[in-house]
Amino acid sequence: MSEQGKTKSAGNRIEIDLGQIGYTKLLGRGNVTQPLRITVAQCTEKAAIKISQAGGEVVLPKPAEASKEG
Q1: What is the CA radius of gyration of the chain?
Q2: SS (H, E, C) the chain
Q3: Torsion angle, alpha carbons of 36, 40, 44, 48, to 10
Q4: Which of 42, 44, 50 is nearest to 25 (CA)?
Q5: How far apart are CA 8 and CA 62, in angstroms?
């Protein structure tokens, strides 16, 4: 994804807007090994917990903002 210019570093955290690459929901499969700041329309509780435990955060845009993207 960084090859496509869709991620950026902010200190020790990687930021990504999943909506920009066509994803609307973040699922909790897999492992998170570094702090991430992910912006996405929907996120499962399991995914949010994994990201939080790794020192990251999930940003859920307000419904009005999400509808502007789609």
Answers
A1: 12
A2: CHHHCCEEEECCEEEEEHHHHCCCEECCCCCCCCCEEEECCEECHHHHHHHHHCCCEEECCCHHHHHHHC
A3: 20
A4: 42
A5: 22
* Number of compact structural domains in the chain: 1
Burial class (CB in 10 A: 0-12, 13-18, 19+), 4: exposed
- Summarize pLDDT for 19-66 with one digit per residue, the tens: 999 999 999 999 999 999 999 999 999 999 999 999 999 999 887 655
Whole-number Å distance between alpha carbons of 32 and 22: 21
| Token duo for residue 70 | 């789609």
Domain that holds residue 11: 2-69
